[in-house]
Amino acid sequence: MKTTISVIKADIGSVAGHVVAHKALKDKCREVLSKAKEDGIIEDFYVTNCGDDVNLIMTHRRGEDDEEVHRTAWEAFKEATKVSKKMKLYGAGQDLLSDTFSGNVKGLGPGCAEMEFKERPSDPVVVFCCDKTEPGAFNLPLFRIFADPFNTAGLVIDPSLHKGYKFEVYDVIDHKRVMMSCPEEMYDLLALLGSISRYVIKKIYRKKDDEIAASVSTERLNLIAGKYIGKDDPVAIVRAQSGFPATGEILEAFAQPHLVGGWMRGSHNGPLMPVSEKDAVPTRFDGPPRVMALGFQISECKLIGPIDLFDDPIFERSRRLAANISEYMRRHGPFEPHRLPSDEMEYTTLPDVLKKLKDRFEDIED
Ligand code: F6R
Ligand code: MG
Ligand code: MG
What we know:
Elements: E1 2-10, H1 23-38, E2 44-50, E3 53-60, H2 67-86, E4 111-118, E5 123-131, H3 139-147, H4 154-157, E6 165-171, E7 176-182, H5 186-193, E8 199-206, E9 212-216, H6 221-225, E10 235-239, H7 247-252, E11 259-262, E12 268-271, E13 273-274, E14 290-299, E15 302-308, H8 316-330, H9 350-357
Helix pairs in contact: 1-2
The protein binds fructose -6-phosphate and magnesium ion (2 copies).
């Protein structure tokens, strides 16, 4: 019998602006998920938040894209939105783009990462949750975890990893996907993955037996809604140990806070800061972007854990570095590359400014 992990998230309102989801929203989601557990739809769950996003981590026997599991998550968010609206929380229900559920949360606003597998004798998993950034934020660390021997020693010295991994990459603009194999196609893969707002890793498979290794939420809210309604704030699931990278190799890729798009008004580059659950409170300039890592053992479809994996003093250096990078980036104010290029900004006054100046622009005679 196979086990499925579904991580479904949404921003349904927060306190003091876009900072932190209120506890009452998580409690309401827990209530809905407890009922779904009693009804046998899901086997287990853990509810958390990363900044203003509520994350539902669920295990079940129903496979990916299951209508009942997705309906459960949708209902949890809908019920919690009622609480959010009553409390007049900020952005209440902002990621729920539809009034009606149509079989799957994809395209309705929430982000979703899922994977199904046959449990090994022991199955450690890391769930990552982000705030104030976009799905491409995982490109660099996932590449390093599954393809960079300077990050993952096992790629070189462990025979069970040595063959490498396959990357399923989505073009989120043209809605196409391609499967690429590492190490052979590493340079071609990097040519795509460097464009983090367009090409994003969806899934990663172990090459020797096609076993699922990682899964990422790739929904881009502004592409779904056609306008800015918040950043996508992605989640990812990564399997660890015994033929997969070790937990420490997985976390290692986040030790250097790389620059990602998001931060203030979804329109700035900033460092992805690895934080504990309690420190997922993005306040400086609405950030900088955050990532949390929760470690579980999956046992007979139950979640053992979590361990708050970035709650380790060794990551204090990374956080300090992220704070220093934030200071440096902030000094650029409205200039690129702190501010995103105009086509990647979530909202902009540029068209209006250009319209206003239309008659004042003159040809340059050279
Ligand atoms: C970024 C984000 C925030 C808001 C900013 C302005 O993803 O959620 O940085 O963009 O606080 O929010 P509004 O326009 O709601 O005042
Ligand atoms: Mg928000
Ligand atoms: Mg958010």
